[in-house]
Amino acid sequence: MKSHRCRSFLLIGALLGVATATAGSGPSASAALDERTARKELTALYAQYSQLIKHEFRYPLKQFFLKHSTEDYVLKQDGKTYSREDTAEMMEEGAMAMARFTGHQLKITSLAVKGNQAVVVYRDRTIAVMEDANDDVHKIVMTTTTRETWVKRPEGWMTRRTEVLNSKTLVDGKEMKPRPKKRR
């Protein structure tokens, strides 16, 4: 499997989580949120996201992300920072476009609310199959732990920042590790 495809697949977990909790209704941005309300709303949004993944609705997933992410959104993973535009583009290109998702589970492990913001840490597991350049089919299992910062606005939850804290990807049962960075 080509390394750029493998590397871009590592970004899928982060992309998927971002699209999950970026919409919803509830109190206005000026109202202070309590943790219980935020947890209820974000959990419901993660469930909606899982349905998009299970049905492989890539274009709606991208549109959902674009509509409900802040203009200054950033994704941080493997020492790199990606803009909102970069993140949206990755949803339709590379591994994201080639993979067929067969399963997804997500569990919020912590949630903290301060004013109109929520910081969520979640762990998710995504299962997919993907063909390589030789038309060989590979089973991919990715597990990530991710921290996201959400802002509650009148139009709903907007994601501002996603940071992949750790990730593990298995390809056909073997761990795939990112290539070491080249020194210049």
Can you put this structure into words, describing what you see?
There is one protein chain. With 184 residues, the chain is α+β, with helices and mostly antiparallel strands. The chain has a single domain (3-170), classed as Nuclear Transport Factor 2, Chain: A. The protein is built from six helices and seven strands, in the order ααααββααβββββ. It has helices at 3-10, 12-20, 35-54, 58-67, 84-90, 95-98; strands spanning 69-77, 80-83, 100-114, 117-131, 137-153, 156-171, 174-176. Strands 1, 2, 3, 4, 5, 6 and 7 form a seven-stranded mixed beta sheet that branches. β6 (156-171) and β7 form a beta hairpin. α2 packs across α3. The radius of gyration is 16 Å and the shape is globular. The two termini are 26 Å apart. Residues 1-11 and 18-31 have low confidence and may be disordered.
Précis, in short:
This protein is of the alpha+beta class and 184 residues long. Helices cover 32% and strands 43% of the residues. Mean pLDDT is 80; it is low at 1-11 and 18-31.
